[in-house]
Prior knowledge:
Blueprint: H1 3-8, H2 14-18, H3 25-41, H4 71-77, E1 84-89, H5 97-110, E2 115-119, H6 127-130, H7 141-145, H8 151-154, E3 156-157, E4 164-168, H9 180-192, E5 197-201, H10 208-214, E6 219-224, H11 228-243, E7 248-256, H12 258-262, H13 269-276, E8 280-285, H14 288-296, H15 308-320, H16 336-347
Helix pairs in contact: 5-15
Amino acid sequence: MSPRAGLLQSQGSAKQAVVRPARNPVCRAVNRSGAGVLRQAAPAGRSVVSRPDRPTEAPRLPLLQPVCYKEGEAESNGEQTENRVIVITSGKGGVGKTTASANLGMSIARLGYKVALVDADIGLRNLDLLLGLENRVLYTAIDILDGECRLDQALIRDKRWKNLSLLSISRNRQRYNITRKHMEQLVESIQSLGYQFVLIDCPAGIDVGFINAISPAKEALIVTTPEITSIRDADRVAGLLEANNIYNTKLLVNRVRPDMIQKNDMMSVRDVQEMLGIPLLGAIPEDQQVIISTNRGEPLVLQKKLSLSGIAFENAARRLIGKQDYFIDLNTPYKGVFQKLGEMFTSS
Ligand code: ADP
Ligand code: MG
């Protein structure tokens, strides 16, 4: 049984979840109480889903040391780099899905790929705001389905990077009538226009909006913060993704506070990753620049002088396309590798 299944089930594997090494008091508290909450949440025998493909051991996390290898190696080990449909999801709201969608999408576009961002957050869309495209959303996917416009009219091209486009599923007060089939057809049509990456920004929750958003996806990126509430929701979502045949899942840990980790007031990225047992794509620090960039409608990765979070998003994007070169050490961001990286990016 996998470590994650152990976290969710109330029988048999309980020991496995509890004996997991705790490196700090916060994590210990989680193992005592939080993991218990997780297990209680899924009654005996009703893990969210049986997970046949789950690795038997959480992948080891090379986070604390930078891993350097040549790009060629990374590509040959790595992911297919086109026709990828990735849903960015979390369960819990407000953990950074839209921020991640905007920054990863922009980063991948800057790396030369044709990227479509789909804002599937019906009723509460805001990806257009983060990209500074809000005044250009004239049509949405619902207008396409109603026959009022063509797909290319609803796909808004970013003026800064023309290989990045945004499709909003609905305007905030538009009536809701999207189905899974509609989502699948929309994504297929987007791909037929030559888009190599389709990133779907998923709404919070696990209701019909979530099911619609994940239905065209072959892969998922689960965003969580290092808080037990967010981790529990991420765990639940991972199970639901597998129940819907999405097994290629990666983890993005957002709003990491290295100062709090050092004081043992926050779980480390490694703790979070081990609790969830999902391969890590990246970790993003808590950074006020995120708020500034949201208000400006300019993704962090476009800033001339990259902030720490901007560098972390660039790093995650490179890993997502298989050009993985290193993990950033957020536990000591102002010393060593992270600082050197910052200098390297900002001095150019
Ligand atoms: P979601 O799409 O999951 O609801 P958002 O991306 O809209 O989450 O982010 C929620 C709020 O958190 C926003 O106000 C955003 O600016 C803020 N936020 C997200 N990530 C960070 C971060 N790394 N540092 C600081 N603030 C962040
Ligand atoms: Mg959002």
